[in-house]
Amino acid sequence: MPELPEVETTRRGIAPHLVGQRVSRVIVRDRRLRWPIPEDLDVRLSGQKIVAVERRAKYLLIQAEVGTLISHLGMSGNLRLVDAGLPPLKHEHVDIELESGLALRYTDPRRFGAMLWSLDPLNHELLARLGPEPLTDVFDGLRLFELSRGRAMAVKPFIMDNAIVVGVGNIYATEALFAAGIDPRRAAGSVSKARYIKLAIEIKRILAAAIERGGTTLRDFIGGDGQPGYFQQELFAYGRGEQPCKVCGTTLREVKLGQRASVYCPKCQK
Question: So where does DNA get bound (predicted)?
Fold first, then answer.
């Protein structure tokens, strides 16, 4: 699943080609996503100029003069720029054609993503209750410590809760916990303030590094410019179960936490 760095990579790839451009038409070949694409999307968006492309959590917000297109890439979707009129392949469900001659093409093999329309996107039901962005000053270790008190749930699903902080998905939660030396199975309420401060620092560092390198190449993720991410080569724990730890050589263990595979080092993480 594309996580925050992959979505931010997509945003940075498509924004320069969209902002300031006017939409000539919208072609919807299949409306059956996780939430159906609005039947009047073409009417609402065509003729409008795109004024900004922003990101909130893992949602892309394509802002027009009136209204905003809310897009989510789902499990395996992507947005990329193609020449308008390029024949679509299977699973290429939407084209947003621009007066420049380019089209923003949405591909979603599993149809688990979204393309919705809103006049007030930040108060849309999908976005209104989200926690702070991890790369802002609002998010820090003190927040994690205070919200974790009395929580018996494991620390990994705790930091993956979008009400606590957005965008810390399975890959980056695994890596941040490894870097902070925290066992992902540990009860969230038992982690000290000092360790949460360290964890928040590592979350910020790892997400920023992944964005800088274009995200993590997993399965079929590609950025908005059609290029893959290059962060996977730097992974210490995610996807490395039963392999030796890069730090101490101990065999990494894999367990299930919150229906997600979690890899950790029994020596480095306590």
Answer: 91, 110, 151
CA–CA separation, 235 vs 239, rounded Å? Answer: 8
Task: Specify whether 114 is located in the same domain as 204.
Answer: no
Radius of gyration for the chain, computed over Cα atoms and rounded to the nearest angstrom: 20
Residue type, 85: G
Catalytic member of 55, 58, 198, 240:
58
Residue 5 has pLDDT above 50, yes or no: yes
Active site residue 65: no
Q: Between residues 258 and 126, which one has the greater pLDDT?
A: 126
User: Is 110 within any annotated ligand binding site?
Assistant: yes
**Is 49 among the catalytic positions?**
no
Examine residue 131 and state whether it is found in any structural domain, yes or no: no
6 in catalytic set: no
199: in domain: yes
The secondary structure of 232-263 as a DSSP string is: GGG-SSTT-TTSBPTTT-PBPEEEEETTEEEE
Domain range enclosing 211:
141-264
Q: Which two tokens stand for residue 41?
A: 């999307």
Phi, psi of 180 (to 5 degrees): -85, -5
Task: Tell whether residue 17 is among the known ligand binding residues.
Answer: no
- The three-state secondary structure class of 229 is coil
Global pTM reads 0.89
Burial 36-45 (b: 16+ CB within 10 A, else e): ebbeebbebb
Tell me whether residue 260 is one of the annotated catalytic residues. Answer: yes
Q: What is the pLDDT of residue 263?
A: 98
Terminus-to-terminus CA distance in the chain, angstroms? 28
The residue to which tokens 């595979």 are assigned: 261
Q: What's residue 2's pLDDT?
A: 83
